[in-house]
Every structure is written in C-alpha cells, then in structure tokens.
Design a protein that fits this description.
heterodimer; A: mainly alpha; two-stranded antiparallel sheet; 2 strands; B: 2% strand
Chain lengths: 577, 795
C-alpha cells in the first residue's frame, strides 16, 4: 500500500478509547487553562478541577486496563499489510506505568492543596507565604509533564519518545521555578534547562544516527533488523544507542547525568521535588525497560550482553554509591532526600541490569527476566509510597517552620508526633529495614539479583554493592530520626500540621507497614503476575518478529513499504495540483 | 506462640497512654505482661531433651518464609530469662527513673524490646529471626540514646546501631546464602529457611556453606560484642542502668550467642566453625577480662566482664563437646542472673550516692544492707565461689577444658587467667562499695558527702537484685532443679543430640573432680591476691588500657567514620560544584569517553577501523582551492573566538565562522540550508549579544586549558562520528520516493517546497498555528509590560 495514495485514515472511536487516560488529561489541561478566564483566578477551584481530571483519568486507565486484560488490541496505527509498527501502545506495561503516574499525580495535587491551605494561613509572613497565584499555570505545567511521561512509556517509536521526553521535560523546567521570588528556584531551573538541553541534543543526535543507519524510527523494527546483522562491529548503531541512553540516563538521573538533580530538588517547591523524584524517574525507567525489552528478544545481541550488563551494572553501582556518599553530609532534609532518590535510582537500575543480563538467550535464563521485572515493579510501588510520605512530612515541617534544614526537625517526636512517626517509618523503610515496605522491595531485588548471579556469577558484585550501600544509607536516614527523637529543645513550639497532610503521611506509613507484613506476599505475586504479562504476552502487532527466511536485510524492502514511521499516523491525502 | 510476641508489642504501643492515665503505677501493670507471657510459656516448655513445641503459619510462601516458631529447651530458657528479668527490670526502672520526665517512653520501649527479643528466640525461620534481630537493634538504639540531651549518649547509640546494624546485614546475606544452599540440596522452598529442618540437613558439601557460615558468625559476633567488634558495648553503658542490666548484659548481647547455639547442630561439624569460635571466644574472654581491670566506672567494669563472659560462651559452643555445651548452658543462665543483679546494684549505688566511680564509693553496708547482701551474693556467683550457681557453671567449664586433648591446656590456662581477673573484679565490685573503710581512697579526701547521705533503695529496686541473687544461691545449693527443669533440654537443643545434664555441687572424690576442685581453689586464691593488689595497680592498668585504646578497634571505627565523611565531602565537592560550566563539562566528557569506548571496542573487533570510516583518499582526492581557503578561514575564526578577551568579540567571531559555514553549504549546492544557517546565525549572535550586554566582562579562569582540551576532544569525536556515518551505505530513504512523486503529484520542482506545502500541508498548518499562538503570547506579554510600566509611571 502506498502511503501517499488517497487514504484518509483516522483512528476509530474504539481505538481512541484505549487512549482515554491521555485524552482526558489533555482535556483537563485545556480546562485548567481556560477555567481562570471563566471563573476568575481561583487557584483552589482550579486545583479541584485538576484533581477531578486526574481521578477521571485514573478511572479511565482502570477501565482500559480491564479492556486490555480482556484482549483488546491497544495499538494506534493505520491498518496496513504487513501491519505498521505502532506509534503508540496501550499494553499492560504502559498501563501499569500510567496508573502509577496518575496515582502519583493525584498525590501531588493533594499535596499542593494542603500547601495552599498553609499559604492562606501564613499569608504575609516572611519565609512562609507561598505563591498561590501561580496555581492555574502550575497545574497546566504539571499535567503536561505528566502527559509527556505517560507517552514516554507507551511507544517504541523514537520520534514519539523524543517528543514525549520533551513534553515531560519542558514543563518541568518551568515547574522548578514556580516560585518566582525564589533565587534558588530560578538558578535550579536554569541549570535544569541547560543540562536538559544538552542531554536532549545528544539524544536527538543518537536518534538521528539510528534513523540514518536503519531507515526506520521504530525500535522493534531496528531490533528485528539487527537480528540479521550482528551489530558488534556496527559503530553507528552503538553510537546511536549511546545517545538514546544518555537521554534516558538524564531522566532517571543516573550518574553522571545526575548533576542537575540535587540543585533542582533543593530549589524547586516541594511538590515539584516529589513529582520529579518519583514520576520522572519512573517514566525514565519505564522507557529504559521498553528499550531493553525491545532488544532482548534479539539473539544477535548475545555477544554484547556481557559488556552491556557490565555497563548498566557499573552505572547502577556508581549511581547508588555516589548518591549515598553525597547524602551523608547534607544539612537540608530535602537535599538528603534528593540524593537518596539518586541512590534509589541506582538500586532500580540494578533490576535493569538483571533484564539486560537475561536478554539474548531466552532459554538459558528461564524465569529471570520475569523476576527482574517483578522486582522493579515492586520497588517502584514501594518507592512512591516512601517518597511521597517522606517528602510530604518534610513539606509539613517546612511549611510550618519556614525551613527544611535538619534543625527544623529537632524534637519533632514531641512537637508533632503524628508527623515524626510516619516520617521515621518512611525513613526506616527507605533504609530497607523490616517489617516495612522498603524491606520487601530490597528483598525482591536482592533475591532476583541472587538468581541472576546464578547465571552470571559476577553479578554478586552488584549484590555486595547493594548491601554495602544499604549499610551506608543507614547513617544519614538515622541522622534525621535522631534529630527528631533524640534531640529536643523545650523552647520549640509544637508543630501544628493540617489534617489533610497528616492523613496523607500517615496513610503512606500504614501502607508501608502493610506492604512489609500482610501485603508482602501479595506485592510479590502481583508484581510477578504483571511482569509475566509484560514479558510473555505477545504485544499486539509487533511487526517483523520472524525474520524472513531469505535473510534479506530490510533495505531490500520496497520503498512503498511503510518505512516512514515518521509520517505513518498523519499521512495527508494526496491531491493533484 | 505468635500471641506471646504480639501482646508485649501491642502493650508497648499503648504504654504512653497507660502512663498518662495511671502515672507511676502504670509500670506495675506493664510488668504484669512479661509475668503473664512468661508463665504461659513456662507451662509449655517441653522437659524431655529434643522435645519442641512448634507452630507455623504461612507468610510469604513463594519466598519460603513462614511465621514459624519453636519452643524447646534453648528458646524456652531464653524466653523465661527475658520475661523474668524483664519484669524485674520494669519494676526497677519505674523506681529508678521516678523523676525522669520521659519515664512513659521507657516502659513502652522496654516492652517493645521484650517482644522483639521473644520473637528472636522463638522464631524457627531464618528470616523471621532476622526481622526480630533488627528490631532489637532499633529498640537498643532508642534505649541507649534515651538520655538524648547528652552528646555522648547519642554517639554511643549510633555506634551500637551502626555496628550491630552492619552485622545484621551480614547476617541477612548469610541467611540468604544458606537458604539457597538448602534449596539446592533439595529442600522445598518453605522448608529451606526452617532452622529445625536445616539442623537435620547436611549442607557441608555445598559451595555456599562456608561463606554463609562466615557471614552468620560475623553477624552474631557483632551482636555479642566479640573482639574486635566489642567496642560498642562499653560505650553503650551511657544508657540508663535498667537498660544496661536488661539489654546489654542479660538478654540482647546474648542474642549472638543464642544464634550460635541455635545453629550449632547445623554448623557444629565444620572445622572453620570450631576454630573461629574457639579462638575468637578465647581471645575475647582473656582480653576483655584484662581490660575490665583497667576501669573505674562500675558499669564499665561490668560491661567488660560481660564481654569476657560472652567470649567464654562463644568458646564453649565452638569447643562443642557434651561437657562444653553443658557448661555453656549453665554458665549462660548463671551469668544472666548475677550480671543483671549486679547492674541493678550499680544503679542503686548511683541512685543513692550520685556516682559510679568505684574509687569514690565505700562504707555503704550500714546504709544499704539489703543491697549489700544481694551484691555480695551476686558477686560471689560471678567469682564462682561455692555454693552459688556460678560455681556450678565454673566447675563444668573447667571440666570441659580438661576433657579436651590437644587444645585443652592452652584453653585451660586462658580460662584460668581470665577467671583470676573476673574473681578480683567481682570482689572489687562487691567489697569496695560496701566494706571499704573509707571512700576516696585515692586520698582525695575523706568519704564524700554523698556516701554519708546514702540511703537504702526503695522496694522495687531491691526486689530485682535480691530475687536474682537468692535464686543463684538456691540453684547453687540444689542444682538439680535447673537440670531437670531446663538444663538437659537446653543442652540437647544446643548440641542437636540428647545430652543429659546432672548438676552437682560436690562431685565426690575422683581424680578428675579433685583436679577441677584444685584448679578452682587456685584460681580463687589468685583472684583474691589480685584483688588485694588491685587498688595499687588500678591506676597503672588503667594507663595501659588507655594506651591500648588509642590503637584499638574503637579507633578504627572512628577513623573509618571520619574517612567516610572525608570521602563523602570529596565526592560531593567533586561532583556537586553547583557550577553549570562544570556540569556541561561533565556531559561532554561523558560523551567523549563513552564514544571513544564504543569506537575502541569496535576497533578491537578485528576488522581495521578504516574500513568503517570514509577513506582519507576519497576525501582528499577531489578538493578545490577555494574550499580549502574557506576551511582555513573557518578554523581561524574559531581559534580567534577562543583566544579573544571579550564576550562580544568572541561571539562576533563565532558568527563569522557560522557565516563561512553557510558559504560552504552554498558551495555544495544547498542554498536553502545556507539561508537557514545565515538566519539562525544572525539571530543567535544578536540574542547572545543582548544577553551578554548585561553580564560582567569575561574573566580569566584557571580551567581554560582543560576546557580547550575538552572542546578539542569533543570536536574530534564528533568529526569521527561524522566520518563513520558518511561511510555508511544508507538504506533507501523517503527522499527518493518524494523526489519521484514531486513533479507528477504536486507539479513542483523544489522538493522542499513541495513537501512543506503539499505532502505535509497539515503539519505546516499546525506549525503556523503554533507560531501564531506564540506570537500572540509575546504580544500579550509586551502589552502587559507596557501597561505595568505606564501604571508605575503614573502612580
């Protein structure tokens, strides 16, 4: 079929319905943008609107998940023979991440609303008054970056990936500087923009190399192509992959692309910090897994599995260690948590290393990819709970005392027992102490690593690094706990936290307790089941899974064949002149 | 059995409220919890050797983790110690800390610890045990740091947590290895972590067996303060005395010994186990006893003697003969009783006089007769004097040593020497505070005023020491009570084989018994002699100990901590300079290094690299002089930009380079690209100049050469990449297809135009809309700005 023949393809309603979460989010963005014109600048009302949109998106996401679970084809691409590589997918994998992102988003909106209440309370007080007026713009930016992240995990098309990363990043740059009077915020935003721009440039260059090398933007097609030509010596392929990896590393904040992270996390308002520390990393990891998974089936890569696993493993170890070491000496709790989130990205990258290690030869590894994936899914779920709880508690303290310095936490056990206790639980969970969710997460990760080490013995190095780092991290988390419980100054007044905030942080703590005890087992099972679906369900319409028997390189495909993933979705009707 | 663990934990949670309602009486109610739990457990402790009451519930089946509990001789004895001493300590703490404003926390924390400790000893699953193990560490952390106003207390708490916490991680790693070894040996998942099952399995052939053993032993040593990990325990003495009595002598520090005893049936046949435990135990026993003699703080003396006893127990488990195991069992129980009593007495003395310095205390018998009696009884038990329980233990200990063939003599000597110290110290602890003629014997003056004002401790503080001391006497006189009730079952559980215990105070007349008795008497005499000289020697020994301390493991810990901080600082300073220039430099370096890595690995691939680059001949074959001139001009422009001293001239020179590149484009028949390049270049220069106009003038900075090098390297890498790409035989592209369609389909000859306005008309429309929207936005901003300016102008 010639893509330039008159062919007005539009997705049907049934196809579009599978992308309802994104569409609802877009509608919410428009509504939030327009609302101030209709109802005036009422930030809290706008916040409720945004929350309603996010909840609707969540509901839609759940509904789509049910549909996809029942076997619906979650692909957005024009009908063609052979089928075109999809531009966007709504499979179980992306739906998990979308649900995850939307839940996080709802928590962030909630946190903002609590902060808004504080802002009204402290209006006019130096250091404590927070900018409320920027509300509508804040939500437009927040929701847009969420949209970008949701797209990031739903595609294997390099161009869509690039656009999605940019959609996620550009609003984030502005989000960091929401508080326009904050010098720290402005500086952080500038650094973030510069860093992001350079990383994106490298990634775009890498993508262009890949496109130039393979003539397609679809990663699964590229993976199918290299099945015929062993890529070990293919310079351009590796350089392109390197560029793509740089972009992903920037999103995950893996060393050495993490440099922006502490400055940005410290300078940004705490809601934004929480959002970036959880969602941005999760989306980056999702993308990484997608890429790894796309290539994992390719037996041609099996020569490269060992160096690649080394690369990811070293990256993970260094990320972990640098994050933990740098956190040791920080005095700002927000900054401690920022570095800790770098360290946790390292732990999660270790799960990525398992997946890389297990790619290539499927038969030899059996259950391994599933275990690695399950470990990562479980880790992410626990991670979001711990971080929302810890950042939330920090926000409650910072809003009251006007600072997130360690000294603001002095005697918190007495001054605000219901903030201090959940904070302590979240911190212990971040260490990975039982019986909390963090222990469960580390446990699944270490067990999976141990299993992988059975096949690749040098992975024991990663196990050792993870354990040593856990010991290291104990120090700085305990430092906060020590400040809360083992120091006190009777002159300090009680910290009165708003009810909504208390509900939030305590809910996180209770969840962590449950995840570490009663839900330990269900967590593992659910994560395992999800991983099974992701890896063993045939993703619908993955083209060219079977190499043609003649061993033709794809360059021999007819030019009319849909090589132009670039324009596949938007081919305009051809008309004479 | 789960309930016996959950009840204390639950009550711990509500303890602060109980305290708020009942005030000081709450502690009595709290003390009822261990009494009840202990009674319930005592009724179910199996008497016969190797009998056990098991209970299991599923927890995480796919990882093989079961909530499994086992009550047998070993765990039963521990549970009874924990509950019994726990109740006494709770009562004691209530009186000891009557005036402390944080008393309400103490009760809850002690119960929390009690629950965790019960869970630790009762669990039959490796991982459940680990959970409780860590929980005791956390409880210990909070209890050591209880007097948090003191920096010293906080540091000590942290030290204990770091050492035992790190040990806990080693333990977990060991457990995981053991679990996988057991799975390999064919045990089903849910059985592979059950301690009782593992004990009956032979895993010694597995390659993970020894690593697991080493890691587990390391974890146990850290908890039980074996050399060289002992240093946290003396520092932990900053905790309130009830805590020291409970956690750091009677129960928690014995958790390591408990674990060793528990796993003895599994590891007992391994030579590594024997050597490691015996040697470490013996060294700890002797060194700690000697170190104890250099202390003057009552609690620190007791702490070091505790370390010494823990070493003895470790050594006995390592020796592993029937007699040694029996000795370990008896000695463990005896020690728990007398040491808890002694700690409580130390607390009472401090409570009454305000000091724990053994050089200041004296002549208190008259004021505190009951305390004195219990103190003497407990100390004599510690010294191993007949007819106390400690004597029974020591007899067994000596007998076990004699029983050995090769090592026996060495160990016997070590044990005797350590015992001499312990006896002298026991006497010092019991005699000086009560009977020394005058306090302040360092001639600092007559008895301190505090000693004269001393008074007998209140009843709850007397109950603990007195009951424990009298218990020691009672069991010493009728040792059969112990061996029938618990001893045999305990020893059998440790040994993993039926070991019948028959304790006697008097062993009759036989060569072996007489030898043991003889050694006992010699040790007692020597100890007594040392005690007589101890006063004179104390200062010297203290000086030696202090000198040793400067090189001891505590110093290593301090150094490690400072080193860690220093490296943390260095890493932070290195990576997080906060300078954007540095960040960009890092990105470029990463790009260079990784690209070079890829190129190198491709080069190592075998085929020469030149095949994959455009050949130089091809490049150089067809060039014209005007191209060369352009290239040279571009290079000159770039170099001049680098060398220029002001922002504006640098940017202008960069602009020149850009324009020359545009000329190059035009030469190679890409006029549209050239036009775009010129426009972009002009705009960039204008924008940059506008921005830089507001920035300070360019300053020299040191890293200029490094920057130049990085820039050159980045350029070289990019050039290499371009060469590599140019060498590619690209697959057929869309452009040919579009070129073919341009004329017939769109009647246009400029392909770019055709694409923009025909093939992708909708995209172009979208782009125009976006640009228009952005323009509107800019217009709105400008208008707003003007209006504000105007508003400012008028107001």
């Amino acid at each position: 079929m010639n893509p330039l023949t008159p062919n007005t393809w539009l997705p049907t309603a049934a196809e579009l319905r599978l992308f309802a979460p994104e569409l609802i989010l877009i509608a919410t963005i428009v509504a939030v943008l327009v609302a101030p014109i209709l109802i005036g600048r009422r930030p809290v009302a706008v916040a409720f609107l945004a929350l309603a949109g996010v909840l609707a998106g969540l509901y839609a996401c759940g509904a789509v998940a049910v549909q996809v679970g029942a076997g619906a084809q979650g692909v957005l691409s024009p009908p063609a023979e052979p089928p075109l590589p999809p531009m966007l997918m709504a499979d179980r994998f992306s739906l998990f991440f979308k649900l995850f992102l939307l839940v996080t988003l709802a928590a962030i909106v909630w946190l903002w609303m609590i902060g808004a209440g504080q802002a009204q309370r402290w209006a006019g007080v130096e250091n404590r008054a927070r900018p409320l007026a920027a509300g509508p713009e804040f939500f437009v930016l927040l929701l847009t970056s969420a949209l970008g992240m949701m797209l990031m995990v739903g595609s294997l098309n390099l161009l869509v990936i690039l656009i999605a990363i940019e959609t996620a990043s550009l609003p984030s740059y502005a989000l960091v500087a929401t508080d326009k009077r904050s010098r720290l915020g402005a500086e952080a935003s500038l650094k973030y923009v510069m860093f992001g721009a350079v990383s994106t440039a490298i990634m775009a260059y890498g993508i262009s190399l890949l496109y130039g090398r393979f003539g397609t933007l679809d990663l699964s097609t590229i993976a199918a192509q290299i099945a015929w030509m062993p890529p070990a010596a293919d310079l351009v392929f590796w350089l392109g992959l390197l560029g793509l990896g740089t972009g992903i590393a920037f999103k995950v904040a893996a060393v050495p692309m993490h440099l922006w992270c502490p400055d940005v996390f410290e300078g940004a308002p705490i809601e934004v910090t929480t959002w970036l520390s959880v969602a941005s990393k999760a989306a980056g990891l999702g993308l990484l897994l997608r890429v790894v998974e796309a290539f994992s089936a390719s037996a041609a890569l099996s020569d490269a599995v060992v160096p690649l696993t080394w690369a990811v493993g070293v990256l993970a170890s260094v990320t972990c260690t640098v994050g933990n070491l740098a956190a040791l000496r920080q005095e700002s709790v927000k900054r401690i948590l920022a570095y800790s989130s770098i360290a946790h990205a390292g732990y999660m990258l270790m799960a990525g290393a398992i997946l890389v290690a297990a790619s290539g030869d499927a038969a030899a590894h059996g259950d391994l990819p599933r275990a690695g994936m399950a470990a990562l899914v479980a880790y992410l779920l626990v991670y979001v709970t711990m971080n929302v709880g810890a950042f939330g508690a920090t926000a409650l303290v910072a809003w009251q005392t006007g600072s997130d310095h360690l000294s603001s936490f002095t005697g918190l056990g007495r001054r605000a027992p219901w903030v201090a206790l959940p904070m302590a639980l979240c911190l212990f969970s971040l260490v990975g102490l039982p019986p909390l969710g963090g222990f469960a997460a580390k446990w699944f990760l270490l067990v999976a690593l141990g299993k992988a080490a059975g096949v690749h013995p040098w992975l024991w190095v990663l196990v050792t690094v993870a354990v040593l780092n856990t010991a290291l991290s104990l120090y700085y988390y305990v430092r906060i706990i020590r400040q809360m419980y083992l120091t006190d100054d009777d002159a300090l007044p009680p910290v009165r936290a708003p009810g909504g905030g208390l509900v939030m942080v305590n809910a996180c703590a209770v969840l962590l307790l449950l995840l570490g005890t009663l839900w330990f087992s269900p967590l593992g099972q659910r994560a395992g089941r999800l991983a099974t679906h992701v890896f063993y369900s045939p993703v619908p319409a993955r083209p060219q899974e079977v190499p043609s028997p003649t061993g033709h390189p794809p360059a021999a495909l007819p030019a009319e064949a849909p090589r132009m993933a670039l324009s596949a979705g938007h081919t305009p009707p051809y008309h004479g002149k | 059995m789960l309930w016996t663990i959950l009840i204390p934990l639950a009550v711990a949670g509500v303890a602060p409220w109980l305290h708020r309602v009942l005030r000081a009486r709450a502690i009595w109610l709290l003390a009822l919890v261990p009494v009840g739990v202990g009674t319930a457990l005592a009724l179910r402790v199996p008497r016969e050797p190797l009998g056990a009451w098991m209970e299991a519930a599923e927890w995480i089946p796919e990882l093989g983790i079961t909530l499994a509990f086992r009550l047998d001789g070993l765990s039963g004895t521990f549970a009874l110690l924990i509950c019994g001493i726990g109740a006494l300590v709770l009562l004691y703490a209530g009186a000891y800390m009557r005036t402390d404003p944080h008393l309400h926390r103490m009760g809850g924390l002690l119960l929390l610890f009690l629950g965790a400790m019960l869970g630790l000893v009762l669990s039959d699953d490796l991982f459940v045990l680990f959970v409780f193990w860590e929980l005791t560490s956390v409880a210990s952390y909070l209890l050591i740091g209880f007097k948090h106003e003191k920096q010293e207390a906080r540091d000590a708490a942290q030290k204990a947590l770091l050492v035992t916490g790190a040990g806990g991680l080693a333990l977990l790693a060991g457990f995981v290895l053991l679990h996988s070894a057991a799975s390999d040996a064919g045990l089903p998942m849910e059985q592979a972590a059950r301690i009782s099952v593992l004990a009956a399995t032979d895993l010694s052939g597995h390659h993970l067996f020894t690593p697991a053993l080493l890691l587990i032993v390391l974890g146990a040593f850290s908890k039980s303060a074996q050399m060289p990990l002992h240093f946290w325990l003396p520092s932990a003495m900053t905790a309130p005395t009830p805590v020291s009595a409970y956690l750091h002598s009677a129960t928690m520090v014995k958790a390591g010994v408990f674990l060793l005893a528990r796993l003895n049936p599994l590891f007992g046949d391994s030579a590594v186990w024997h050597v490691l435990l015996t040697v470490t135990g013996a060294v700890t026993m002797l060194v700690a006893a000697a170190l104890a003699a250099g202390q003057s703080d009552l609690k620190r003396i007791l702490a070091y003697t505790t370390v010494s006893v823990l070493g003895t127990l470790t050594m006995l488990i390592g020796v592993g003969t029937d007699l040694a195991i029996k000795a370990a069992a008896v000695y463990l129980v005896a020690h728990a009783c007398y040491k808890a009593a002694l700690f409580m007495i130390a607390g009472s003395l401090e409570h009454a006089t305000g000091t724990r310095d053994i050089r200041q205390l004296g002549g208190l018998f008259r004021a505190m007769p009951v305390t004195a009696v219990s103190g003497v009884l407990a100390a004599f038990s510690m010294a191993g004097a007949p007819p106390l329980f400690g004597f029974v233990g020591k007899e067994l200990l000596l007998k076990a040593k004699l029983d050995l063939e090769q090592l026996g003599v060495v160990l016997l000597l070590v044990a005797t020497l350590a015992n001499v110290f312990l006896i002298a110290l026991a006497l010092a602890v019991a005699i000086w505070p009560f009977f020394a003629p005058s306090a302040g014997w360092l001639r600092r003056g007559p008895r301190s005023a505090a000693c004269r004002l001393a008074h007998e401790a209140p009843l709850p503080m007397l109950a603990g020491p007195l009951l424990l001391a009298i218990g020691g006497l009672f069991v010493g006189l009728i040792p059969g009570v112990f061996d029938r009730a618990l001893g045999s079952a305990m020893a059998s559980a440790i040994g993993g084989r039926p070991i019948m215990m028959e304790l006697k105070l008097w062993h009759g007349v036989s060569p072996a018994a007489l030898t043991v008795l003889g050694i006992s008497i010699v040790t007692l005499t020597l100890g007594f002699l040392l005690f007589l000289r101890l006063r004179a020697w104390l200062t010297h020994i203290a000086a030696v100990v202090a000198r040793l301390g400067r090189r001891g493991p505590a110093r290593v810990y301090d150094l490690a901590l400072t080193g860690l901080f220093a490296s943390a600082d260095r890493v932070t300073r290195l990576t997080q300079t906060g300078s954007l220039r540095q960040y960009v430099r890092v990105i470029l370096l990463v790009l260079i290094v990784t690209s070079l890595g890829v190129v190198l690995s491709a080069a190592l691939d075998g085929r020469p690299l030149s095949h994959r680059l455009v050949s130089a001949d091809g490049l150089l074959a067809a060039w014209y002089w005007h191209e060369l001139v352009l290239v040279l001009l571009i290079l000159t422009g770039a170099t001049a930009a680098l060398l220029s001293r002001s922002h504006v001239s640098a940017i202008a020179l960069l602009g020149v380079t850009g324009l020359l590149i545009a000329a190059l484009f035009a030469l190679f028949s890409a006029p549209d690209l050239a036009i775009t390049q010129i426009l972009v270049e002009a705009l960039t220069v204008i924008l940059l100049v506008l921005v830089l106009y507001r920035l300070p003038e360019r300053t020299e900075h040191k890293a200029r050469f490094a920057d130049t090098a990085i820039a050159l390297a980045a350029g070289a890498v990019m050039a290499g990449i371009v060469l590599a790409t140019a060498a590619l035989h690209l697959p057929a592209t869309v452009s040919e297809h579009l070129a073919r369609l341009a004329k017939p389909g769109a009647h246009g000859r400029n392909i770019v135009n055709v694409i923009l306005v025909d093939f992708r008309a909708l995209d172009t429309l979208g782009e125009i809309t976006v640009v228009a929207a952005a323009g509107l936005g800019v217009y709105a901003l400008i208008k707003l700005y003007r209006r504000r300016k105007a508003g400012e102008g008028t107001s």
